[in-house]
Amino acid sequence: MGIIITIVWAAVVGFIIWKLPLFGKFGLQRKTLLAVYGIHVLAGIALTLIYSYHYPDRNLADTFKYFDDSKVLYEFLFTDPIEFFRIIVGYKSDNIHLKPVFEQMNNWYQINNKYFYNDNRTLIRINAILMIFSFGNYGVHLMFFCFCSFLGKLFIYKAFQNVFKERKTLLFLSIFLIPSVVFWSSGILKEGLLLLLLGLLFLGFERWAENPKSIKYFLISVLSVWGMFFVKFYVVITLTPGILAIFWLKRTQYKKPFLKMGITHAICVIAFLIFHFVSPFHSFINGLKWQKKNFYGLAKTMESGSVIETQDLENNLLSFILNLPEGFINGFFRPFIWQGFSSPVVMAAALENLLWIVLIFFAVKWFKKPDSKHLSYFLLFFSFTLLLFTVLGVVTPIIGTLVRYKIPALPFLVLSLFILINEEKTKFLEERIGKNL
Question: In the chain, fewer beta carbons within 10 Å around the N or the C end?
Answer without folding.
Answer: N
